[in-house]
Amino acid sequence: MKKSKLVLGLSLLAISGLVLIAADHIDAPSVTGNAADITDMFTFQGQDTNNLVFAVNTQGLLSPNKTAEAVFNENVMIEVNIDNTGDNVEDLVIQAIKRGDKMYFFGPYKPSMTGKSSSIDVSKASGDVAISTYKMTPVTATKNGMKFFAGPRDDPFFFDLGQFQKILGGTATGFNNPGVDTFAGTNVLAVVVEVPKAMLGGSGTLNVWAETKRKQ
Amino acid sequence: MKTNKLKMITIAITIALVSINCNDNDNNDGDMDMMGMMDFSGTFVQQDQMARPAINTVFIASGQPKDDFNAAIPSAMGSKYQSIFQSRLMALNPAYDKNALGQSASAFTGLLATDVLNVSTTKKTTFFDGTNVLTGRALADDVIDVELLLIFGGSAGTLNPQLTSDHVNANDVAFGTSFPYLATAW
Description:
The complex is a heterodimer.
Chain A: H1 2-15, E1 38-45, E2 51-62, H2 64-67, E3 76-83, E4 92-99, E5 102-109, E6 117-118, E7 125-130, E8 141-143, E9 146-154, H3 161-169, E10 187-196, E11 205-215
Chain B: H1 2-22, H2 28-32, E1 44-50, H3 55-59, H4 64-70, H5 74-92, H6 105-113, E2 117-120, H7 143-152
Helix pairs in contact in B: 5-6
């Protein structure tokens, strides 16, 4: 009984048009397939546990053939937002934007405005790094205790999306064991920045999120 | 004549640019001197937003609603999206009562509707490792299994076992232990 109810629920959901596409890959019409599409965000302690690492991935499901031609866009800023007071409003931002063959980083700094619009305070520049080339050794830079990377990487996300879609579509009732990683063999364009925790404020907990913002 | 003049100017500019570019080779610091020559002006407007994995994709309907969610800011999400998320949760699992965190449908969706990643600056950072809950998101975290378990597994995590793991438990390649941590592209 319970099982059939569940399947019915899933089927109705599929019919209602909720097609599940994984982590945030290809999630919405206006950003899918362009430089503003965020696929995933990670925040974790660095090798030096005094640091936090922020990784923001964009342009998911890049095949090896497509990866060499995938590029960051000079009009699209990638912004890490950090709330260190618990109100879900950003107190600090770290901004990354491409100019030429480099990625330039600003912050962490307190933005002059919060919310949907941002500007860049060039006096808060914190570092830059050459954008790494596909199939070449990754280029990293270190400055002010921070580390910087931008370029193609393996998509770290893993999920049997195909089977999940079958479940939602009513043609399967569960996952297979082992499952199949839909994201195996695909790449993303990643921005990774490592920051001393001391630069991030707060009293033990932060709320963080990633945004892409396009120049108007 | 004019063409020649233009050529000369072009050559002059090229030489100037090349000279500046030489500074690039110094080291990382040299590039900052060039920043004054670059244009970082303008207003940048939100296109996409993301924190916890798969939230938009699981809980928001296709098309315009997904764009709307991507354009929303976290401080405004809770009031706008909690009830929408709860409807989706109950459609996914009509028998949902409580999850393994002891959360009712409204408590669980109240947490998820504000799409931020909770991060500890004092503890191990993980989505869930059996001990720590929502203290970050590490590369190797099996976030999909955590979310499936919370949606389908009930208060003991034992219900609907066919739906609580996709049995893809790790990435297809190993991650690095040092910066930039993510693995080499395929």
